[in-house]
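notes to self, project folder thing:

trying the whole complex as one job this time. last attempt i did each chain seperately and stitching them together was a nightmare. two parts in total, labels are on each line so i dont mix them up again. if this works i'll redo the older ones the same way
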Amino acid sequence: MQASVELIDVTRCFGDVVAVNNVSFSVRSNEFFSLLGPSGCGKTTTLRIIAGLEDPDRGTVKLRGEVVNDVPPYKRRIGMVFQHLALFPHMNVYGNVCFGLKMQKFPSSEFKSRICKILENVDMPPEVFIKRRINQLSGGQQQRVAIARALIVEPTVLLLDEPLGPLDLKIRQRMQIELKKIQRRVGTTFIYVTHDQGEALTMSDRIAVMNEGKIMQIGNSKEIYMNPKNKFVASFIGETNFIEGFCKSNETFEAKDSNLVIKADVPEDFVKKQAGLCIRPEKILIGRSLQKNENVFDGMVEEAWYLGSSISLRVRLTAEIVLKVQAQTVDDSIASIRLGDKIQVRWPKHNATVIPFE
Amino acid sequence: MSYIQRLIDKLRQRKQIIPVALLFPPLIYLALFFFIPMSTGFLYGFGMIDRFYRFTQSFTVLHYIRAFDYTFLLIFSRSLLIAGLTAVLCFFIGYPVAYTIALKMRRFRNLLMILVIIPYWVSFLLRIYALINVLQFFDIYIFSGLKISIMGSFLGVMTGMVWDYLPFMILPLYASIEKVEVSILEASKTLGASSLKTYFHVTLPLTAPGVAAGTILVFVPSVGEFLIPYFLGGVTEYMVGNLIWELIMKAHNYWLGSAISTIVLTIVLVIVLIYMKYGGGEMAF
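result (full assembly):
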């Protein structure tokens, strides 16, 4: 399938700062693709380069397979939803949504029907909202108008720059589901910029995690979460336990400064090398006395917070290693774990990931 | 009523007194220096007071009828033309300047705005003599060959008017352009509007209040301007301000001068009101 958007070795500097550093990726048609990273990681600049609002210093940008480096934004046929929405305050909903149709010279006989259709697609009954002024809309409604305005010209790709940022948590969660629904309904490629890992994991087909201008990993939500390729991805997405050590063979990992030997799936390249081991807190099983099995270790509870459906613990295994553990309170033996208790932890070896040592 | 209750009531009353008290100085100022002179002028025009501010117990519209003669109509229409042209030229020169300072040269905008304002820190007389020198230089070394001269011509007056009133256009324009979010202009571009289309459909309508303010700030004082035509124009370029000045200061005809002032004021007010109603709020482009 032809890539809808493709970036090849794109670099952009602002003075001495390399905002985007050799970024390459391609987004398939109808894909929900997220750029995820902390603020200042270059994700917004990458998006603006795709839109043509920023020129890359080096590299190639392709839309629908054509190089668009020299094409101005207004000829790129993209849609963009801005962080602060950037709706036209001097126009009503109709004027805002109609703007793209007018500018791109769609036949004016189709205006009304297209606008009604798109407003219905974003769940804004046209008969109610079409004449409303922008300042008469709530945050969530403005959001929908901004999306409708960008989608109406049937863009190749819709670029979204943290559009849910200013909304409060409840509306944001609802809009996440809405956005995904809208995307399925209209069948357009979405590229979504966010610093919120939850948002990215919920909505995306694939995620590119960025840091300091570079792409750290690209993959679907599960890959990113379960098999982080490096320490940054492991620690940025969710909580993680990170154990430094040495890979002795392709199935044993020895923790640094202690003789804890852990069974792990070590990829060939890591054998006989320094490495790190990542284990997600919820992938660790706990119990008072577990069956003898692989990776069973004794520990002492140093901190315990009872959270209702789960319990969050810090368990000290050795002088150097303290593990964060998140356990479901399936029965009272787990719910009743207290500070200072001696317990056992266990994880199957496929639940831990070996990543390069930094 | 307890003592404390009374104290609270007193404080509450004082709270309402303070804003009213703060209004007093400007109100007195306005009454003394604006309302009284304006009504004096108004009464003069109808011949209701004499030179020594005594009521004459009479009423006449003769001065108003005499005001509408050929000379006045000629000079007044010339004033409107010059003022209108000044406003239009200031807009066409001022908008690109304000736009560039506000959006394209953000880093230097404070410095650039100071450069726009600085000429106003110099006395008008110094500035006008400086301008006269420049124009005379052009007349002597450049235009003499073409047998024309800027000084004492319509062109000279227009040069002076635009030169003097330009900052009054740039300042409100700058203030309104500066408020435009850059992302709104970018949104317009991503929706398929070229820079020119973005300007006419988004930037200009969004800054319409600034355009209206600037136009009025330039147009209204321009109509009554008399120093610039006095210095840079000849008798043939007299504006209504010069006419009123001559009538009152030289001919001591307070009655006719006042009648003309009142007519000018009324017509300018009507023009401004019409402009604000149909052109000011939302420019329909």
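what i see at first glance: Chain A has two domains: 3-231, 239-356.
need to look closer tmrw
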